[in-house]
Amino acid sequence: MTTEMDAEAAVKELRATFSSGKTRALEWRVSQLKALLKITEHHEEEIVQALRSDLNKPEFEAFVHEISAVSAACKFALKELHRWTKPEKVKTSITTFPSKAEIVSEPLGVVLVISAWNYPFLLALDPVVGAIAAGNVVVLKPSEIAPATSSVLAKLLGEYMDTSAVKVIEGAVPETTALLEQKWDKIFYTGNGKVGRIVLAAAAKHLTPVVLELGGKCPAVVDTNIELKVAARRIISGKWGCNSGQTCVSPDYILTTKEYAPKLINALTCELEKFYGKDPLQSNDLSAIVNSNHFDRLARLIDDEKVSDKIVYGGQRDKSNLKIAPTIMLDVPADSLIMSDEIFGPLLPILTVNKIEDSISEINAKARPLAAYVFTNDKKLKEEFIKNVSAGGMLVNDTTLHLTVSGLPFGGVGESGMGSYHGKFSFDAFSHKKAVLQRSFAGDLSARYPPYTSKKLKLLKALLKGDIIGIFRALFGW
Amino acid sequence: MEDPIHELDLESDLEELRKTFKSGKTKEESWRKSQLKALLSFLEEQEDAIFNALMQDLGKHPVEAYRDEIGPLIKTVNHALQNLKKWMSSKKIPLPVVAFPATAALVPEPLGVVLVLSSWNVPFGISLEALIGAIAAGNAVILKPSEVSPSSSSVLADVMQTYLDSEAIKVIQGGPSVGEKLLQLKWDKIFFTGSKRVGRIVMAAAANNLTPVALELGGKCPAIVDSLSSSWDKKMAAKRIISAKFGTCAAQACIAIDYILVQKNFAPTLVELLKAEILSTLGEDIKETNFMARIVNKNHFSRLRNLLREPGVEESIVHGGKLDEDNLLIEPTLLVDPPLKAGIMVEEIFGPLLPIITLEKIEDSIDFTNANPRALAIYVFTNDKKLMKRLTSETSSGSIVYNDAIIQYIAETLPFGGVGECGFGRYHGKFSFDMFSHEKTVAYRGYLVDFWFRYPPWNEQKMWLFKSAYRFNYLGVVLIMLGLKKS
């Protein structure tokens, strides 16, 4: 258990470590990244067990979505680190001639990573990889709602990492509050908007920059004239195949035309049965709901009298095992509970529109989501969608996969968050890009200095406009 | 004096801007270009009005005003006009072969309706650098200039406004209470330049709406002066130091040199050089020669006077120290080794008082600088390459400049911004465009290739396929798929 004093002591120790300069050395960063990699390679069983315990996460998801993703992040950072840490040479213009300029990446210092419960291993370590690669010291506070994973993280990082620079502090609200009162050089938070505001307000006291990875209602627009079976599989994979819909980028709801809806529902239910069988509550390939709080929250969404007659598939639940079957609803009213907040569960409302183009204004009437999806072969719809829908990221003809590519930044906009990470963007998120300008004493422009004269003014005007002839004329007094 | 009717209009002003943004007008390249061109016209046609306003607000000489405000802004607008198409275009991202998405791009989009809170010392420069970035990125903007520079604020609200599309860009005048009211509204980004104290207020207000902010705050920018041998180098260094302190709004600038660090044995030489340079560039009587800006108002004048009155400080003055309250003028003042605990060495000075701190060896400047909160800039005057390397890698600041000062402000290829207590977020050049943009990731997939092992029900075989794929073991993948390799 951490109190105010423990948080303060931890930060003090970390600051001293950072000031020593140890973490700036490339060798140190490489050693720590290799240590993280070892954890993913030698403790797979333990991690998979913890994820089963916290979320009944299928081993497949545990491996593909969490362990291998962390391992890939470490490997990518190890491969690219020398490139990322090289100063970026920058061109200079006539206004500062003669000069040399470059941009140098430096660590921010002491950073705090607050992680979430749904991908408790990935969302804890993915940012930590970036923080370490950039040369910072880190405190990681894993989510207490996934306690088994939190324990495993504390144990394994405690064993493998340099604990004078990388600390795991477990705990719930009081511990997190104590940590947020300290002065950090950056805070990285993954979670919901309510706590996001609290984090931002705490950061304001110390003028600490933050990255907030929040959520939103990610829409998936489904057009006609597509490979329906493939689309259905991809929607299912992104929804129920990702932690039973408890994923910030899962398709939250679907928009399709009135005529197409029955076909879509048919395809979805057909594939769902192939994946999870006739009694999905028995399938071992579906994650459970994380705890009874969230289970009750989701049950309320199903029991909402506004939607009870809109259920076209599923609806079964098993409270003792915290399982809810894949559930599809058709044409729920806009003011129903399920359409007000992010669902974060295995319930999929399908809203219908008259023309598919109308879905764009439907989406724009809501807060900007973390991701938006469109399934279409229509070039015009694709272009309209990309041009007019604002979201953290978009994927055409699939769901969620854009996260797996390390060359793409992952982050939100508006209510879905600020800042981004993954790959080099993680390194950048935890770096300060320092401008370095080198001038010599040789070239000097006397027009810069007083005493000020009108001739000097003429020269400055020409110089700042880049007007070569003007410069000559001013120099020669014309 | 604030206009009560105007205060009521803030919500409807914001409503109007939201409506305009929603209509898509500000996203059009043609609209953005037209507004940037309008700003260019404003800067060229209203030069005299701008000179007059700056003379009234700060006693800023027209050449200084052109060098530091109008000139750089014209450069910035032209740079934006030239590069706008490139900045607005999507950037293709190369993807690894095994990546599931087929192609991907980063598409920049405007954030929406943004708020720019500007400051009084470079009233046109700071307001317009941000405005140019916001417009280039396609946003609707409200600009609130500082009431502490009222003439400049008027020129912006009454003259510049007429050049711009008021349905999308508004200049709103007012003091702290107008600022407070603006902060209660919901913005898509807030850009603030000013003090740490107000920076905290801005960020706390933004937190309620999850509004991202960029803060350009202050700090104490040190100038580390090595023992130079060549007389040319010495003269150049002195010239640049004087210009970067007294010649830049009388040191009322976030990137002005705040204090100097010099080795004990070089200090007397440096002091003499600086004295000589002050006399030759600024003249004996600054009121007569008029080359130095004045202190902005009585508040700041008193603040600076109090810094000089602290115990131990007045005795450390080696040059200047004369105060003219009626004209709000303070002579260029040099001090050697004032007490390190005195206000003049703890707070940002923001005025023409230049403390010179002596050290045993010049390398001690590294520890000295690191013991203090990070600043917007560190300036170093030296020919010693080893020292340069050490300073670049062992200190941290917004930027670091060798053998000159202030000039990084006009280098549009370098990001301008702080780190730690001097703020976060960066702008100038393309960085301004990026500051007011959201880079949306867009990825595309086809239907043709689909990995059947992506879907449940799960089994060992599918697990092994994934493990191989992730380890980029293509051969393994193919073999397993053909059933030729046992998992």
UniProtKB/TrEMBL annotation, chain A:
Catalytic reaction list: an aldehyde + NAD(+) + H2O = a carboxylate + NADH + 2 H(+)
Keyword Oxidoreductase recorded: yes
GO molecular function per UniProt: aldehyde dehydrogenase (NAD+) activity
GO CC terms: cytoplasm
Enzyme active site: E213, C248
GO biological processes: aldehyde metabolic process; response to abscisic acid
SUPFAM superfamilies referenced in this protein's UniProt entry, alphabetically: ALDH-like
Keywords for this protein: NAD, Oxidoreductase
Domain Aldehyde dehydrogenase intervals: 3-436
One of the Pfam families matching this protein, by short name: Aldedh
Gene3D superfamilies named in the record: Aldehyde Dehydrogenase, Chain A, domain 1, Aldehyde Dehydrogenase, Chain A, domain 2
Keyword set includes Cell inner membrane: no
Family (UniProt): Belongs to the aldehyde dehydrogenase family.
PANTHER family: ALDEHYDE DEHYDROGENASE, ALDEHYDE DEHYDROGENASE TYPE III, ISOFORM Q
UniProt name for this protein: Aldehyde dehydrogenase
Organism name: Dorcoceras hygrometricum
Automatic annotation (TrEMBL), chain B:
Any single Gene Ontology cellular-component annotation: cytoplasm
Catalyzed reactions: an aldehyde + NAD(+) + H2O = a carboxylate + NADH + 2 H(+)
Keywords tagged on the record: NAD, Oxidoreductase
GO MF term set: aldehyde dehydrogenase (NAD+) activity
Active site: E216, C254
UniProt xrefs under Gene3D superfamilies: Aldehyde Dehydrogenase, Chain A, domain 1, Aldehyde Dehydrogenase, Chain A, domain 2
Family: Belongs to the aldehyde dehydrogenase family.
Protein name per Swiss-Prot or TrEMBL: Aldehyde dehydrogenase
